[in-house]
Amino acid sequence: MRLVILGAPGAGKGTQAVNLAKTHNVPHISTGDIFRSNIKNGTELGKKAKEYIDKGLLVPDEITIGIVKDRLTEPDCQKGFILDGFPRTIEQAEKLDAMLEEMGVKLDKVLNIHVPDDEIVKRMSGRRVCPKCGASYHTVYKPTAKENVCDNCEANVVQREDDKEEIVRKRLETYHKQTEPLIEYYTKKGNLVTVVGKEKIEDTTNEVIKALGEF
Ligand code: AMP
Q1: CA 103, 108, 111 angle in degrees (round to 5)?
Q2: 172 CA distance to ligand 1 centroid (A)?
Q3: Which of 66, 82, 97, 186 sits 20 to 30 Å CA-CA off 73?
Q4: Which one of 2, 13, 95, 128 is the catalytic residue?
Q5: Phi, psi of 4 (to 5 degrees)
Q6: Average pLDDT over residues 157-172
Q7: E strand or H helix at 20
Q8: Which of residues 141 and 99 earns the better pLDDT score?
Q9: Per-residue pLDDT tens for 44-99?
Q10: What is the maximal distance between C-alpha atoms in the chain?
């Protein structure tokens, strides 16, 4: 399976990507996760990326494209991959097309998860993540078993700095301006499928399975 997942921040791309990567046994490539792990490890890349991420802006294409190129040439991507959060600009999509052509492969589908802005703001304010193992929770929709403690590793869960409401609104603005045009880009190519993200994760998962059909 070679899949791109599109959608606004907080639409549930990561959650669906993790599920699909597991069921199809392909790597899950999240540029957001790559940036966050670089920030955590204090790398030069992390320092640069943080300046943009904290403001709700996109990390510049010249940084992001190189990262994805390196990742896609790793051997585990030969059997397929799920790209979550990349591409986010037309320039990135064009560069991705060139990378895939060089690899001699094509995207099977582009999955667009649509969620209205107001719903996103509501969802993101409740999102909590585990800083140790990366598990994702929601105070209402997917609470931890013990309050504020990760079910997997017992670390205290936190709110991502960029999930605070003011930054979420800026990220949505960035999404509409720079990423939404990709819907038309992939519609023209004929491989876009759209699902409406539901409140319950399992409901969205079922919609995704239906929309993707046989793989
Ligand atoms: P995410 O976890 O996918 O929501 O990404 C978190 C943040 O990382 C985004 O708000 C951007 O600042 C940055 N980021 C992630 N992926 C990309 C990308 N493909 N291009 C530019 N910036 C990105």
Answers
A1: 125
A2: 12
A3: 186
A4: 13
A5: -110, 135
A6: 90
A7: helix 13-24
A8: 99
A9: 999 999 999 999 999 999 999 999 999 999 999 999 999 999 999 999 999 999 99
A10: 48
* Residue 122 confidence (pLDDT): 86
Q: Which domains does the chain have, with CATH numbers?
A: 2-209 (3.40.50.300)
12 is in an annotated binding site: yes
Q: Give the residues across from 194 on adjacent strands.
A: 112
State how far the Cα of 78 lies from the Cα of 205, in Å rounded to an integer: 25
pTM assigned to the model:
0.88
Length of the chain: 215
At residue 134 the predicted structure's pLDDT band, cuts being 50, 70 and 90, is confident
What's the sign of the alpha-carbon dihedral 43, 54, 16, 81?
Answer: negative
- 40's tokens: 């955590």
Looking at residue 214, its pLDDT comes to 67
Q: What is the pLDDT of residue 182?
A: 98
The answer to whether 105 touches 43, Cβ cutoff 8 Å, is: no
| CB of 64 shorter than 6 A to ligand 1 | yes
Q: Tell the residue nearest (CA) to atom 11 of ligand 1.
A: 58
Tell me if residue 135 falls in helix, strand or coil. Answer: coil
Known catalytic residue at 123: no
